[in-house]
Design a protein that fits this description.
Helix content is 30%, strand content 25%. The protein is of the alpha/beta class. Helix 2 links the parallel strand 2 (27-32) and strand 3.
Length: 437
């Protein structure tokens, strides 16, 4: 006896291939949900309503055990059973090996006894309904570490995400998570309900609508990263003077990590100890979030946002325009070479180095005005070691330099279903280097 796992869609028996339908019709035992079993009222075989898969697996093992009345004396496993074969058929939704029961069945039953007959998966249907290629999509199932996996993909800013919804992981729960993360990367949301059924519905929904509306339990939420130009216009009068929300900035497309998070940004500004009328360099400016904070706080200062990536430079220019920044200049180029062309600074923030940290420090130290400061945000031990080694050598030759380090480890609260958890930001060392003379 063999176990055949047959995937089925909301279109029922009519959506099965001829070979899959023949397998179901030859079942000695048919296992499935009430809905799946209702698609085959004409079959007279034994039926089990699948309510507890673990219990069903134990019973299936008994059927498969040698010596039972249903076990043939000798058997060859075939993907296409012959007319005399006795089959156990398990009906499951879609593709059993795509976030389905297939993984558990393989773990609990002899693999050589299993044959799978997949149906079109709901994610495949969703992207085809939207007419969008999906070979590069990231899929999040409703089981396992749902919120952790989804948070990781959102922070990476991946282009396409498909989320399988159920009664607990609803589109509203997804929307709450996206809103709480406050990310600069923006997405458009498509909710695909009851795919394959007569009441199928595919609709584009704004984030706020996901929080308010109700959707069918059997749905797929497709998230597509939006173009930065499609960002919602800002109401500058409602923005705080210090600590602008991350979501207010246009991100760097496929490089969301170039945004300095609000909590870290505020600490960096404090370490810079800014004064009016200064020249400030923002080296490795990402999308310009630090530059914009400085420019808005000190409109009579001049801020240079230096960024070597095209996506970052485009984001800086869009953000300068978006925030109405008049005292900021976007500089596309690589440090330290580009730094020789700029006015000597009173303050320097180094958020990225492109692998040339030692050379950048050397040029910045040469150009920094007396009494000035450099602040670095470092995410790795190696970069901290590089800075300390550079400082040790510098102080030996020029004793008027000093430094201090603030280690930052922060977490934000995020919704986890009906509960609240914490999402850790990357630990950062904020190094402040002062030129004392």
């Amino acid at each position: 006896m063999t176990v055949h796992v047959v995937g089925i869609g909301l279109d029922g028996a009519a959506g099965l291939s001829e070979s899959a339908r023949q397998v179901v019709e030859m079942a000695a035992l048919l296992v499935g949900s009430d809905r799946h079993l209702s698609y085959f009222p004409q079959l007279s075989c034994e039926r089990w309503v699948l309510s507890d898969l673990t219990e069903a697996i134990l019973e299936i093992r008994r059927w498969l055990a040698p010596g039972t009345d249903l076990e043939p004396a000798a058997e060859t496993v075939e993907s296409s059973p012959g007319p005399s074969a006795q089959l156990i058929v398990i009906l499951v939704a879609g593709d059993p090996l795509f976030y389905g029961w297939g993984k558990l069945l393989i773990a609990q039953l002899p693999p050589e006894k299993l044959t799978f007959h997949p149906h079109v998966s709901c994610v495949q249907l969703a992207f085809n309904r939207l007419r969008i290629p999906w070979q590069d999509a990231h899929c999040i199932g409703a089981q396992g570490r749902y919120f952790e996996e989804l948070t990781a993909k959102l922070k990476l800013g991946v282009e396409k995400i498909a989320v399988l919804a159920d009664e607990n992981h609803t589109p509203a729960a997804l929307a709450k998570l996206v809103k709480a993360l406050d990310l600069p990367t923006r997405y458009e949301f498509w909710v695909c309900e009851n795919l394959g059924a007569a009441d199928e519905r595919v609709s584009r929904s704004p984030l706020e609508a996901l929080l308010r509306e109700s959707f069918a339990p059997l749905s797929v939420v497709v998230m597509l990263r939006s173009s930065p130009i499609a960002a919602v216009p800002l109401d500058l009068t409602k923005l705080p003077l210090l600590g602008i929300p991350d979501a207010a900035f246009i991100g760097c497309g496929d490089r969301p990590g170039l945004t300095v998070e609000r909590e870290v940004r505020v600490l960096v500004l404090a370490q810079l100890a800014l004064q009016p009328g200064q020249v400030v360099w923002d080296v490795g400016a990402g999308n310009g979030s630090v530059s914009i904070e400085i420019a808005r706080l000190f409109p009579d200062s001049q801020v240079y946002a230096i960024e070597q990536t095209v996506s970052g430079t485009c984001a800086i220019e869009l953000n300068f325009s978006r925030f109405g920044v008049k005292n900021g200049t976007s500089i596309h180029g690589s440090a330290p070479e580009i730094l020789h062309r700029l006015r000597p600074p009173h303050r320097i923030f180094i958020g990225g180095s492109g692998g040339g940290l030692t050379k950048i420090l050397g040029v910045c130290a040469l150009r920094l005005l007396p009494g000035g400061s450099m602040v670095l945000a470092l995410a790795t031990l190696e970069h901290i070691g590089t800075v300390l080694s550079w400082m040790e050598d510098r102080v030996r030759r020029e004793p008027h330099w000093s430094y201090r380090i603030v280690q930052v480890q922060l977490s934000r609260s995020i919704p986890v279903g009906n509960l609240t958890g914490f999402e850790a930001l990357s630990p950062i060392a904020i190094v402040t280097i002062d030129r004392l003379d």
